[in-house]
Amino acid sequence: MRKHVAPAAILTFSILSAACSSSPSVSSSSGSDGAAAPPSSSGGGEDGGQVAEEAGGTPPGSGSVTDSGSTSGQSTDGSSGGSKDSGPTTVSTDSGSHPIAPGGYYVEGNSIYDEAGHAHLFHGVDRTSFEWNPEGQYVDAGDYSLMADGWDANVVRIPINQDFWLSTSPIYSPGYAGVIDQQVTSARAAGLDVILDLHWSDRGDIAAASNSTLGTLPGQQCMADANSVTFWQQAAAKYKGNGHVMFELYNEPHDISWNVWLGGGGSTSGDAGTCEQSFTTVGMQTLYNTVRAQGADNLVLIGGDLWAYDLSGVPTNRVDGYNIVYVSHVYHHNTVHDMSDWPSYWGFLTATDPVMLTEFGPFSNQSDDVNCELDYVTQVLDYADMNNTSWSSWAWWVYNGGGTDDGADYCDYPSILLTRTGTPNDLGQIIQTRLQSY
């Protein structure tokens, strides 16, 4: 895994947050150019138009670390559990014993640590298309080497469609789980960690799922459903042996109350429950419990409300558990997402919990005041760096919304590639430069 040198502000923050911890002891137990535009309704975002390092320091103090080692993740058994790493399954620090998936990470306080006790930050990109196409589009294993070696990313986020995965779905693709597993294998071979993001779902009406009307079923919904539970039962069981795979429970919850976000129930029930569709949701606590019930100690990523932007309700609606990283999506839709609002919507939580931005970026023609402002992205990255926040950028894609293959309409998506050979567009240059600075 490539070592990113954290900005001084992050390193100081990480060391201070670990000041009460000694170095952990680790105990082992068994164990063409491809510039096609995506579907216009391919995801979240408040306007419905968006598809939707290591920090260098170790916890101070003396102590020895015993590490049973880990593989690169290239070994794969697609039928019996996915990529597997060897490594410890618990890490002990002064604050107690922390479960850890083999080869992976654990959370203590507001920081993420690897199995050797080194503070870690994720910086990377989102590889879109697996949510709308069961084989992905313009997929090349070399993409992951470009991300890792050409851009210096250390993580890739892969969007998932539960209806391609589940065998009871009318659009079930028998090869889909294998396609996803191949992405994991290729990403690990390049040295990348992987986030599996449940991006599209079906409101619990799996029989009605159809790819003939994208954006209806399946698609981005207000919240997860009972079929999402089945997906996580299977995915968590498959990847519990690979701590380099992380689980983002549901992409961009929105228009639901915080009690529904946490505990599930009717999508229109509770205060501020304004979801346009009425269905029975499954809350984050149940999704989290489902992952842990499979014996998976992998990091779990949990997005807030308001298309994942808002984490203000987390302190009074915490998911009960461990190895949890909270997620925000920060897009310049309108002035409510201005930098002055970040501390109260998500920045405050970085003082107590790990936070990761798994999507962010500018948009075109949102209003007279918001129109593809690239300075916004630099502000997001600066604020993330100052607040010990991991991130992955949407999206590793060439967008031709204007009907050309020059990637010039990147802010309509947004996308970060000018060409499929890894050349960045103007937005991508900002992302690439920041990745290479760590």
Protein architecture, described:
21% of the residues lie in helices and 17% in strands. The protein is an alpha/beta fold and 438 residues long. It has one domain (44-52, 121-435): TIM Barrel. The strands form 5 sheets. Strands 9-10-11-12-15-16-17-18 form an 8-stranded parallel β-barrel, surrounded by 6 helices. Strands 1-4-5 form a 3-stranded antiparallel sheet, with no helix packed on it. A 3-stranded antiparallel sheet has the order 6-7-8, with helices on one face. A hairpin with a 4-residue loop joins β7 and β8 (119-120). The longest helix is centred in the middle third of the chain and has 14 residues, at 176-189. It starts with 7 loop residues before the first helix and ends with a helix.
Brief digest:
The chain is α/β, with parallel strands linked by helices and 438 residues long.
